[in-house]
């Protein structure tokens, strides 16, 4: 069993090429294990105003294009842009349609003109961005007045069961240390965008065993890219220690994996 978790970005960052390559390799298997991503994206969609009809929308960090297709169905008259840093994801998404254009791009430096979009939608992508202030600045720049930036991300507390179980085994970095919720709140408040809503909600998935969880993280492309991560395969003794420690969290439904999800809807002032 290899050591798998989400890559660490804030404070000791992996090369973005590593993140892109990892998700590109996972493109074919991603949708089969992406229940969290679908649940979170659907929740984010539900937070958009009911009377809001964007003429141009951007699915930022589109991955396999699942929500590009959902946005295309919800706004059939709109012009859809799907963007991701991982070429493999774009190659998977493009033939499935949903958007008018599929673009390779970085959320911190969007290859779009000013005041291009009515909606920037981003579900579980911006946690990979080291400079979230730049993400907000770029969203503000490409939005038209009255446009909306809706994003879902992850904050501190995500995968705490896995993190705490590894702490029992060794002192090495295994699980990403995500931003604090108050950092999201502060940066959004200072962005020039008006905060319509911003909250963190827990989302818990259950697994029969640790291997099922780590297999899913691998299939999602969410490998451990943390600085200080162990190299190579994880030893059998350490894996047995992880399994024993994680069993302390077991519930009737199975082993829990908690994701603390930040949902935000921001509006560019008219």
What's the gist of this structure?
The chain is α/β, with parallel strands linked by helices and 270 residues long.
Range of helix content: 25-40%
Mean pLDDT rating = 85
Q: Cα distance, first to last residue?
A: 53 Å
Low-confidence stretches: 1-14, 26-32
Structural class: alpha/beta
Listing every helix as H and every strand as E from the N terminus to the C terminus, the arrangement reads: HHHEHEHEEHEHHEHHE
* Physical arrangement of strands within the biggest beta sheet: 3-2-1-4-5-7-6
Taken as a percent bin, the fraction of beta residues is 15-25%
What is the CATH third-level topology name of the domain at 16-158 and 177-204 and 258-267?
A: Rossmann fold
* Major sheet size, sense and barrel closure: 7 strands, mixed
CATH architecture of the domain at 16-158 and 177-204 and 258-267: 3-Layer(aba) Sandwich
The count of strands amounts to: 7
**Based on CA inertia axes, which overall geometry fits?**
globular
Tell me the number of helical segments per DSSP (H or I, 4 or more residues long): 10
Radius of gyration, in Å, reads: 18 Å
CATH H level, superfamily name of the domain at 16-158 and 177-204 and 258-267: Vaccinia Virus protein VP39
Please identify the top-level CATH class of the domain at 16-158 and 177-204 and 258-267: Alpha Beta
Family: Belongs to the methyltransferase superfamily.
Protein name: Malonyl-[acyl-carrier protein] O-methyltransferase
InterPro entries: BioC, Malonyl-ACP_OMT, Methyltransf_11, SAM-dependent_MTases_sf
Enzyme class: transferase
């Amino acid at each position: 069993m290899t050591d798998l978790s989400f890559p660490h970005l804030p404070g000791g960052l992996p090369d973005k090429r590593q993140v892109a390559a990892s998700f590109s390799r996972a493109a074919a298997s991603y949708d089969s294990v992406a229940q969290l991503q679908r649940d979170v994206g659907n929740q984010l969609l539900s937070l958009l105003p009911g009377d809001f009809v964007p003429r141009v929308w951007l699915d930022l960090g589109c991955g396999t294009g699942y929500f590009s297709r959902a946005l295309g169905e919800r706004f059939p008259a709109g012009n859809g842009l799907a963007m991701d840093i991982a070429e493999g994801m774009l190659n998977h998404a493009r033939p499935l349609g949903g958007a008018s254009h599929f673009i390779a791009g970085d959320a911190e430096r969007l290859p779009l003109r000013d005041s291009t979009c009515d909606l920037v939608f981003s579900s579980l992508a911006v946690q990979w961005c080291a400079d979230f202030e730049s993400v907000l600045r770029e969203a503000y720049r490409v939005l038209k007045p009255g446009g909306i930036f809706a994003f879902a991300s992850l904050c501190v507390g995500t995968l705490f069961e896995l993190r705490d179980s590894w702490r029992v085994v060794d002192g090495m970095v295994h699980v990403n240390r995500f931003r604090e919720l108050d950092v999201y709140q502060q940066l959004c408040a200072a962005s020039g965008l008006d905060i319509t809503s911003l909250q963190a909600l827990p989302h818990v998935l259950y697994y029969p065993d640790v291997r099922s969880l780590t297999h899913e993280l691998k299939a999602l492309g969410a490998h451990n890219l943390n600085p200080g991560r162990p190299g190579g395969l994880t030893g059998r003794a350490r894996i047995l220690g992880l399994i024993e420690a994680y069993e302390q969290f077991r519930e009737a439904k199975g082993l829990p994996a908690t994701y603390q999800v930040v949902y935000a809807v921001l509006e560019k002032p008219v």
